[in-house]
Amino acid sequence: MAAFFEVMIERNFSSAHQLRGYKGKCENLHGHNYKIEIYARGEELNNIGLLIDFGDLKAAADEIVRYLDHRNLNELPPFDEELNPSAENLARYFLEYLNSRIADDRVVVHKVRCFETPTSVATYLIGG
Questions:
Q1: Which CATH topology does 5-125 take?
Q2: What is the mean pLDDT of the chain?
């Protein structure tokens, strides 16, 4: 079994959305106070004993949060046409964006959990 280090940060934002093609109350415009948990992992620490600086990971995540916070997700690319703004697609969006921003080959964001409510969460993960 492979061993690795894992770090997690949490971010929060509020947005409105409506689900296209959904039959039910979520087809109507409504909002959530989202909580995002971001998990990064790697096998090796850097020369000062860190997997990744929490501040660097938070700064990259905050780029997305600033883009989405207090906005209608249906009006923002890629959720305006390409993707339905579901919790599942938000989790994938965060993961893919963050991995494109991390310039350290030792580290990968491998899991993102997107909470629409404290009891409703979608997870996107890579690598099993």
A1: Tetrahydropterin Synthase; Chain A (3.30.479)
A2: 96
Q: Which residues are catalytic?
A: 26, 70, 116
The number of angstroms, rounded, from the C-alpha of 103 to the middle of its chain's C-alpha atoms is: 18
Alpha carbon of residue 46 to chain centroid: 24
pLDDT one-digit tens code per residue, 28-81: 999 999 999 999 999 999 999 999 999 999 999 999 999 999 999 999 999 999
Find all residues with CB under 8 Å of 124, minimum gap 6, and list them.
Answer: 88, 91, 92, 94, 95, 111, 112, 114
Torsion from C-alpha of 44, 48, 53, 55, nearest 10 degrees: 180
